[in-house]
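Help! Submission page says 'invalid entity' but I think these are all valid:
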Amino acid sequence: MNILFNRLFGAEQHNIAIDGDFLGGYATVDGIEVAIIGTRNKAAINASISLKVAEAILTVISEDAETSRLPRPIIFLVDTQGQELSRHEELLGLNGYFAHVAQCCELARIHGHRMISVIHGEAVSGGFLAFGLMADRVCALPEAQVRVMDLRAMAKVTKIPYEKLLVLAEESPVFAPGAENYWRMGAIHDLWSETDDWKCCLIAALAQTENEDCRARLGLERSGRELAAQIAALVAAA
Amino acid sequence: MSTKQINYFEASARTRLEALVDPDSFAEICPPHLRYTSPHLTRLNAPVAFDDGVIVGRASLAGHRVLVASQEGKFNGGAVGEVHGAKLRGLMERALIDRPVAVLLLVDSGGVRLHEANAGLIAISELMRAVLRTQVAGIPVFALIGGSCGAFGGMGIVSRLCAEVIISEQGRLGLSGPEVIETVKGVEEFDSRDRAMVWRITGGKVRRALGEATHLVDDDVHAFRSMTAQLLDAYAAEQLKSAGLAELTERQQLLAVRAKKYAETRDGRIIFQESGFKELEDVALMPIDDFNRQLGEAV
């Protein structure tokens, strides 16, 4: 993990503790302190990890609310294979735990904390909804794998031949896995390349955060999602 | 108006909606004759619906102004695609302008529509932010859950963001459906054909006992209406105050305590016992009023 931390923040500019699949700590970006909340090892997000994420967010909010300093930005380091699939987690009400994380993110936004997600592994389905997609801005490293379902599984469930899906995936970003597809649809703001200076990328991303949800507009501009902005506007204006 | 019972579970999205709100008060936005269908389903040669599986509009309920959306579980399992999701999000934006007493979501959905999975996932994320923003503005969103598809996937998360979750005994609320868990983890983990077990994990009574749903009602549109009316009266009298640091810190404690208390639990039987119900068979057969009374509610 240290290689990643060094590339993102610079050597000796971070103090991040690893607790199983959970990462928590602080780093310095462009001279300011930021909070780091992350997952690794393609974590299956369960109630326990949700609670750790939510607690870390609430801690940052409450610490900064008690001082006169500017609210510190929060960087989410995202790596999740999705939600944990188990009867126990369902019984606990995992969806309720995810909703709690989302509410904590929204509260952080209201309190003036900028939030950036950096996908350093996988970002999949419900895990990504709970952890990553709620940020102001989502950035993907070159190795990021982003999806709801792989094409073979999708072919099985929808009973559409795999070969046909492969061909259609060339024309449309709407169902096939890939960070590029999510970029075209506006849900990933920036794709960082291997040759980029990720420290500079992160500083630039922080400077560009917006309070409003502009993903539908971005999807329209990038021709990946033509209808979402239009239909929502139609309903909102009716 | 007629008080003839209308089975909520069986009813179509439109029947439910029209019986729920005041007679003839519903005005649809983007009605089916405008034919906003999903181009992505068309490209995959899959059937489309002229409303893309969700009806949205304005209405009144017990005289209160509301915005309302109703998902059709019989179309693609009520799953959210680009157009469907955009209609829901647009309704939340409309709420900031109209300032209704509440926005009602008649949820009946398995979550993301796989034919347009990326668009569906993003749409649900946008809807999550929109629901939160609407509630921060003091307008509560209610989730009404009692359809055949329940509220799963991203719609299970959206439902739990809502200020009120009204569920029937037949309603189901969760994240991953039993079929998905069985397919990936095996039948030993979750047997999706074991209906009693499915009910004890995701069903309305266990959700209410756990506090994941705020109200349990009979499987009858009028019962949903009467509970909704009662809540609208309350919110009309006192505006929703959105959750701040104190409330979310308290929620954090509550969820942590629950995770610890039920750390080994894989059967809702334990949750019923902890909620003061002695015999599981009794809970299953117990009328809703008695169940609510036992949970310590005034009926």
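Support: the input was valid. A stray whitespace character was the problem, and the output above is from the cleaned input. The CA atoms of residues 90 and 119 of chain B lie 15 Å apart.
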